Prior knowledge:
single chain, 643 residues, mainly beta, Methylamine Dehydrogenase, Chain H, Immunoglobulin-like, 6-stranded antiparallel β-sheet, 0% helix, 52% strand, disordered N terminus
Amino acid sequence: MIKITFLFLSLFGTILLGQTNIELLGSLNQYPSVGYNDIWGYVDPMGNEYALLGVRNGTSIIDLSNPANPVEVAFIPGTNSIWRDIKTHEQYAYVVSDNTNDGLQIIDLSQLPNTATLANQTTAFFQQSHNIFIDNGFLYVVGTGSGGMHILDLSNPVDPTETAVYNESGNIHDLYVWDDTVVVCAGISGEYHLVDVTNKSDPQLVSASPSISGIFAHSGWMTEDKRYFFGTEEFNSVDITVWDLQDRTSWDLVVPSWETNSGATVHNLFIQGNYAHISYYSDGYVVLDISNPQLPFLIGEYSTPVLWGIYPFLPSGITIGSDIADGLFIFQFTPGDVPPTIIHVPMDDVLNTDPITISAGIVDDGQVVDANIHYRTTFDGSTSDWFLVNDLNGPTNNTYEFEIPGQQHLTTVEYYLAAVDDVNKVSTLPAGGSGINPLGGTPPPELFSFFVVLPGIPGITSFFPSGDTTIQKNDEIDFLVEAVDTSGLELSYKWFKNDRQVIGNNNTYHYRHSSFDPPPHTDVIKVVVSNGYLSTEKSWSIFVEPITDVEDENNPGSYSLKQNYPNPFNPSTQIQFSIASSEFVNLTVYNSLGEKVAGLVNESKPAGNYTVTFDAGNFSSGVYIARITAGLFIQIIKMSLLK
């Protein structure tokens, strides 16, 4: 089951604030020509803190005793790889790399702060891995090339044993483990799975999230109460999703998307207390306040070139990060006041004249003191002053509701929202507005808007041909439809041939029989007339006959209406037509509005070829339609009079 609390938490709900509430304490770029990947932290028995930094050709162990001057104390070489993952257990670091044959490296950290050494390296269980996780003395390994998840018992930390290989979730990219439960991130499937590992020899799939199309289920982390899972995807589609796992047998999607407004791609996310710490590639280090997991909002940001990993769990409170190009960054995140975050789904056009309720989620690291909405209307070219509306009932669970009165047909309503917190910091949505008295009195440069319209179904008033028609091989015919819209809206026309859209000139379409469809053959021509809200349509069938042999030009074997000559013309032109047998013939000329302007033929004629002159000396320039009917034969041509 998918439960969506807010449908839109991205472009309009999140505004990056630059380098906010985060201080850079130090950095180290020991291997600038090599490149870096993931990072982890370690604390020795004396309380000294270290960064375990993945370098493409090994693992760098860095003393953080002086954050302003970090120092590498050991380097453990490895095969060159873009991907390296590191975790710790007791006094050991466990390192894996993807697209190598290094297997599992086990690094002894007991000799720190002086040095560290490689205690063991084994390929007994796998040769490569993308990610690992350690919990309660067990190492969980995924991305080994063969799919699935390996579980290793670390009772002997230097010589682990394998208890199981779990394959039910297919190819797994990353995972999060606590106690006897695993969240696996199933990568390209766009799914997250819960797996019960109470029996380390027999893992069991518990539940799977609905698949989200277009995402890569990359990684994620659980809130500390183990109720909510924050997932990150690396296809830059929805960035961050939040799932409620109160019922472990189902996944309720409570935040379908959280994104920064820069278009950057998210990578990894870690949760400590009420904050989600995120490595956001080109956006750098991003921190969200998740005190309400269903309404996350930005509380800190520090841009780096391309931040790969982040580690916020060191006891000193510093956060370490790894940048692909620039190596180690050491940050200090200190929560500070930021303006309220306003989360709102912009309104679609409104198809009634009833009052409109506009909802918004408004959150702050402190307290939201006041919020309102400003709106103005434009009708028949006249724009009103701004009106201000408050939520008269007050918010419910951080959700505010503002009522805009009903408006008349063809009214445009522009609006923006404003909020202020307990330290008088004001924000507007869209961003850029200001003002305390009244709140949001200065509008932002851009506005939200919706259109109030009561659309009617467009009406077709006339059309050519008048019905289904028959033509011969290689013949051409023009279709014309005239329509009106009682809603006062502009009409558009889409033409289709056998349900495939074709190019028409607004309300006309020129049909030419295709030599790829030998006769006898039937085509269906359809036009859809729309006012943008409602539509109507008209269809014709065209039966294409083979050309009949003729004995002489005075006894034609086919019916035809040839293009007039000259065309364009001024003031007269010749119109030729042929009939294959004696028929009552009507040849009439209409203007572009479908009004009859000339009757050229209206009598019975024997089979033959005929030429008629159309004199338009008294007519104005424009397009005219010549239409012939002869028995079942109907055809039109367009003629251009230029004076």
